[in-house]
Design brief:
elongated; 35% helix; 6-stranded mixed sheet; binds manganese (II) ion; Leucine Aminopeptidase, subunit E, domain 1; 8-stranded mixed sheet; binds zinc ion; 14 helices; binds ligand BES
Length: 495
């Protein structure tokens, strides 16, 4: 998909479909600008008939029989005074969905003036790209339909948007990669397959890669991570990718929870716990590997980024973890496993200890960690836990720019009593109330307190059951764009 800005008026543009954003309450003046394409009396009649007033998400398609344009899709943007970049994203995605499969060349005309040109270009370009991704890998007879080949952002300044537009493709490829990892079923995306995906990234983009096998993890004393992997016939794979610019001033570690399937273990997921969805329990690692793909292509300067995934399956066999087992993590802390379904934090514990040994300037982990976070924030907002205000505001800003929802949650230290064990140093689960907070507090036990660290619970956001336009039903690729925005910001800021 070729995206570009063109310094043209609507009436100079030619292509198959034009998507036009219409502001509510200003219909008359906007109709005027189409004069040369459609007769204004006809257009206002059509708007009247359809009761189209430019309200948010309203849409109206008009086919044209003559002239350079086949069809115009009008999409409502709501009132000018409330206009947000998110409205442009939504409108672009509504328009894209209308033409997907039929037309090759799209023009988009929005009231750009209200926005910084490069932010508007990224938002709209990403929205078109991300709304048109279709995963046909598992169809026996994939029906490839016409894909959108060319998108022109009509009336946007070419120079001012050049850089932003060049970044759309690398960023969206990272999101697509993350979505594909999440959608892949657990008999396809195994820990071994995940390590192969990392190998492919490393060789395609010249990244450093280290994969620790089970024995090497044992040598590192990763007893918490390995305890989870024990119940599976598949070997664990500890993945460590590294991107480094020539002059690296900042060192960052991104960690993703990588459970290619979570059955719950002996605390088996029963009833409404959605065991059949648990292929997406590697959503954190998908975001991290997706970000690795984007970053490797964008090549930001002044930064070294490590991508870490302690991948395995949580299964049941004769050597699986028993509820009640006591295991020892690589920092020497002992953990009573009072629930085998709280496995993510066990794998992350050893990944965090490993990350700290790299002595980074910051660590961020993403994990589909708790059902409690889904209950608290739903599927559009991830939970953010950190003691570091600076890191919190950096990540919040990066997420906002991406249009990804995030909300800072309390690191309530007094709740630590909930994960106290009477026999070991810790137990892996606390009481049900505040379950996402005790999960974060558990992770904190494995991070050096002098390293800024943030934990992001994406249990709700990594998957969507409803079609959200820019996020069609299924894997969302949540987090990739936030992470990339954050890394880009860091690379531009001298340390
Ligand atoms: N992978 C799940 C969390 C999850 C639940 C993700 C629903 C997406 C949707 C995690 O491993 C888990 O099972 N957590 C338990 C923790 C509990 C045993 C303390 C949970 O949230 O129920
Ligand atoms: Mn679990
Ligand atoms: Zn899990």
């Amino acid at each position: 998909m070729q995206i570009s800005a063109v310094a043209k008026e609507i009436n100079e543009w030619s292509g198959s479909v034009l998507i036009c954003g219409i502001l509510e309450g200003r219909i008359e003046s906007q109709i005027n600008s189409f004069k040369t394409i459609i007769k204004d009396s006809y257009l206002s009649q059509r708007f009247n008939d359809a009761k189209f007033e430019g309200q948010k998400s309203q849409k109206l398609s008009i086919e044209l029989n003559e002239g350079k344009i086949k069809k115009i899709i009008f999409v409502g943007l709501g009132k000018a005074e409330n206009l947000q970049v998110e409205d442009l994203r939504k409108a672009a995605s509504i328009g894209t969905r209308q033409v997907l499969g039929y037309e090759k060349k799209l023009g988009i005309s929005f009231p750009w003036d209200a926005f910084d040109p490069s932010s508007a270009a990224s938002a709209v370009g990403e929205a078109v790209r991300l709304s048109s991704i279709k995963d046909l890998r598992f169809k026996s007879e994939p029906k490839e339909s016409t894909s959108i080949e060319e998108v022109e952002l009509i009336g946007l300044n070419v120079k001012a948007t050049e850089l932003a537009i060049a970044e759309i493709n690398p960023i969206c490829e990272g999101v697509k990669f993350a979505r594909e990892l999440v959608s892949a079923p657990p008999n396809f995306l195994t820990p071994y397959q995940m390590s192969k995906e990392a190998e492919k990234l490393a060789s395609d983009y010249d990244l450093d890669l280290k994969i620790l096998n089970k024995q090497e993890c044992e040598d590192q004393g990763m007893g918490a991570y390995l305890a989870v992997a024990k119940g599976s016939d598949l070997d664990p794979k500890f993945i460590h990718l590294k991107y480094s610019s020539k002059t690296a001033k900042n060192k960052i570690v991104l960690i993703g929870k990588g459970l290619t399937f979570d059955s719950g273990g002996y605390n088996l997921k029963v009833g409404a716990s959605q065991i059949e969805k648990m292929k997406y329990d590697m959503g954190g690692s998908a975001s991290v590997l997706g970000a690795a793909r984007s970053i490797a292509e964008l090549k930001p300067s002044n930064i070294e980024v490590h991508f870490i995934v302690a991948s395995c399956e949580n299964m049941i066999n004769g050597s699986a973890l028993h509820p009640g087992d006591i295991v020892k993590a690589s920092n020497g802390k002992t953990i009573e496993v009072n629930n085998t379904d709280a496995e993510g934090r066990l794998t992350l514990a050893d990944a965090l200890v490993y990350a700290c040994k790299l002595e980074p300037n910051a660590i961020v982990d993403l994990a589909t960690l708790t059902g409690a976070c889904v209950i608290a924030l739903g599927d559009e907002i991830a939970g953010l836990w950190t003691d570091d205000d600076k890191l919190s505001s950096q990540l919040t800003k990066a997420a906002a720019k991406a249009g990804e929802g995030i909300w800072r949650m309390p690191m309530q230290d007094s709740y630590k009593s909930g994960i106290k064990s009477s026999i070991a140093d810790l137990q892996n689960t606390g009481p049900r109330p505040g379950g996402s907070i005790t999960a974060a507090l558990f992770l904190k036990e494995f991070v050096n307190s002098n390293i800024p660290w943030a934990h992001i619970d994406i249990a709700g956001t990594c998957w969507t059951e409803k079609d959200r336009g820019i996020n069609p039903k299924g894997a969302t690729g949540y987090g990739v764009r936030m992470l990339v925005n954050w890394i880009k910001d860091l690379s531009q800021k001298p340390n």
